[in-house]
Amino acid sequence: RHDADLAARYPSLTPVAASATQWQAHLWQTLPLRREDIWQRADQPLDIQYAGTPEALASTLAARGWEPAQQLDWATALNLFSPELPLQDLPVPPQVHAGRHETLALVKRLPDGGRFVLRLWPTRYVLGGTPLWVGNVTAQRKDLVLNLFAIPATVQEFASPRAELERGLRGLPGVTCAPRGSVLLVAIDGDR
User: What's residue 80's pLDDT?
Assistant: First the structure.
């Protein structure tokens, strides 16, 4: 019954049309503010909302040191059993929101050996043909378990990573950043 249970709990995303003006005025407040993981802990914020394509955001952030995350698969999972490897060489474990894995995962390496991870999940809203996404940016550190394997762990402090993303986006041509309380609205001109 797994497929039936999943379909009942997380129905397909039927597109709903909206405008960028509606999004910036009030629609942003209706989107989830916490990530719904499989344990229903809601311990991570969804503090980024992005109107555009994942490819456009990845391309824009590449100039600021963000790169595609090394995904966890059978080959990269073996790196977790090498605790001496730095965090940068470990895969980024996937995360779930509303029954779906992230569509985009980017990382930014930090001088102290840590990293930031930006993730996006789809919403059902489309702004003039452009999809609207929710996401977050978190810091990760490497935790060791019995000195046998390493786990990329999310740091439970979310303001600094989001502020770093906002600083990196501000001033870039064609990028609009609009803070709304604890949520950052991001759009890339020509992608809306």
Answer: 77
- Write down how long the chain is: 192
Is the predicted pLDDT of residue 93 greater than 70, yes or no? yes
Structure tokens at 107: 């990382």
Q: Which residues pair with 83 in a beta bridge?
A: none
The rounded distance, in Å, linking the Cα atoms of 165 and 118 is: 9
Contact 47, 129 (CB under 8 A): no
Residue 43's nearest CA partner among 6, 113, 95, 117 is 95
Q: Is the pLDDT of residue 9 over 70?
A: no
What amino acid is encoded at 151 in this protein?
Answer: I
Look at the alpha carbons of 91, 96, 102, 108 in this order and tell me if their dihedral is positive or negative: negative
Q: Which stretch, 38-42, 120-124, 142-146, has highest mean pLDDT?
A: 120-124
Phi, psi for residue 122 in degrees, rounded to 5:
-75, 155
> What distance in Å separates the CA atoms of residue 43 and residue 126, rounded to the nearest whole number?
27
Phi, psi of 151 (to 5 degrees): -125, 125
Going by C-beta distance under 8 Å and a sequence separation of 6 or more, which residues neighbour residue 146? none
Residues 40-59 as b or e (16 or more Cβ within 10 Å = b): eeeebbbbbbbbbebebbbe
